[in-house]
């Protein structure tokens, strides 16, 4: 009986590690959001699923947004582009699957 419990625990931990490492961030974020709505601790879920707190909510705390107040990356200028003071333009390619 004890061996079965240990094997189940090892398999569960291996599954968590695999999910944290290889699942897309959007799916991990969706699962963490769904579990936190059901009453689980959001900070613990973000740590288990390998997500950063507040990433993707538009608060510009991670520097990933291209807004004026977005930390060190948002208002950066490219050196030597001849336009000092203007932020660089980033093109994001979207791949639509239907």
Notes on the structure:
The chain has 98 residues and is an all-alpha fold. The chain has four helices and no strands. The protein has helices at 2-22, 25-37, 42-48, 71-74.
The gist of it:
The protein has helices spanning about 1-20, 25-35, 40-50, 70-75. It is mainly α and about 100 residues long.
Structural category is mainly alpha
Instruction: Kindly provide the radius of gyration, computed on alpha-carbon positions and rounded to a whole number of angstroms.
Output: 20 Å
- What would the principal axes of the Cα set say about the shape? elongated
Count of helix runs: 4
Mean pLDDT across the residues is 74
| Strand content bin | under 5%
Order of helices and strands: HHHH
Q: What labels describe this entry?
A:
98 residues, mainly alpha, 4 helices, 46% helix, elongated
Topology at a glance:
Elements: H1 2-22, H2 25-37, H3 42-48, H4 71-74
